[in-house]
Specification:
The chain is of the alpha+beta class and 331 residues long. The chain has 4 helices and 12 strands, in the order H-H-E-E-E-E-E-E-E-E-E-E-E-E-H-H. The radius of gyration is 55 Å and the shape is elongated.
């Protein structure tokens, strides 16, 4: 039978009175607990054994109930750290992608700077003025192996000037305009360069044939050349200064002597043009054409006694009669 079907179905309890009764009961229970929790006269606790037993039973239960809370906290920390690491990883990847072009550019500039330093360290004896230029493209013209450089007559470049890189001789200038010049490489069939063998001082002619290793021709002297000998410019003809490194001699598969060029050890996109025309520009013409003994001091003027003696001697030579020729001498 339901409550509403019983004898109290018409009984209605006021809500306000119910709340008031509940508050009074709660206050009374609180007062009873506070009063009953007082210490005994001898310092003992009346409910100490009961409380100790209750704590002993509730401790393990609290540990079991707290375990899920701890696991939930650890899981929350792990999830938070995972998502934080993912976002941090994505951020670092974006930064790395942004820095990679700068890294490549820094490496390229470092290489260019090293090559500039190597070229600026080149010295010739005697000193020759040089112009730094960049090889901009392959030249289309009458030569098979030629390139254009971005330096011309405006910087003093003239036809015939030798061109070098940080390794050695590359070629020479065959044409020039205001800001661009054509450089003929040593490997072109039209290239002819007088050279010498460093070990024996023997002369030869370096002739390009279109291959990567030009030939050595007209070698003077028997046994003047061996594999591995350094080949330098000889300076013959006055077109290139003496002693510019060119390469190393090697025996070709066709039996001819060839040269492994030093300039092949690196790119020829950066070069230096030697503003050299002939050896006459390396000396002072006025010093060569000075009068003989011009640097010596003049003799002091003769004294009066010396002048009189010189005059008397000249007068006696003039007054002396001519010596007769011996008999039979031809007149």
């Amino acid at each position: 039978m339901a409550f509403r079907d019983g004898p109290f179905e018409k009984v209605k309890v006021p809500l306000a009175w119910t709340a008031a009764v509940a508050v009074v009961v709660a206050l009374a229970a609180s007062v009873i607990l506070i009063v009953s929790d007082r210490r005994g006269g001898e310092g003992g606790d009346t409910y100490a054994p009961v409380r100790a037993g209750f704590d002993a039973g509730v401790g393990p239960v609290n540990g079991v109930l707290a375990a899920p809370v701890r696991w939930a906290g650890s899981l929350s920390d792990g999830v938070r750290g995972y998502f934080f690491a993912v976002s941090e990883n994505r951020k670092l990847k974006r930064q790395l992608a942004e820095l990679e072009p700068w890294r490549d550019q820094a490496i390229a500039l470092k290489n260019v700077n090293a090559r500039y330093e190597a070229m600026l360290g080149l010295r010739t004896e005697p000193p020759v003025d040089m112009v730094t230029a960049r090889s901009i493209s392959d030249a289309r013209g009458p030569f098979a192996n030629a390139r254009l450089i971005d330096a011309g007559a405006a910087k003093g470049v003239r036809i015939g000037n030798p061109v070098i890189n940080e390794q050695g001789l590359v070629g020479r200038i065959t044409g020039t305009t205001g800001n661009v010049s054509r450089m003929l490489l040593l490997t072109d069939v039209a290239s002819r360069t007088p050279v010498l063998i460093d070990r024996t001082d023997a002369r030869a002619m370096l002739t390009g044939d279109g291959s990567g290793n030009p030939r050595l021709e007209y070698i003077r002297g028997v046994g003047a050349l061996q594999a591995g000998d350094r080949v330098l410019s000889s300076g013959d003809g006055g077109g290139i200064p003496r002693g510019v490194p060119i390469g190393v001699a090697a025996k070709g598969i066709d039996g001819t002597w060839r040269v492994k060029l030093f300039s092949d050890r690196g790119a020829i996109d950066y070069v230096r043009v030697m503003l050299f025309q002939d050896f006459g520009q390396l000396v002072n013409p006025e010093a060569l054409n000075a009068a003989p003994l011009a640097g010596l001091t003049s003799a002091p003027a003769p004294s009066a006694t010396q002048a009189a003696a010189i005059g008397d001697a000249a007068a006696r030579r003039a007054a002396a009669p001519a010596t007769p020729a011996p008999a039979g001498a031809p007149r």
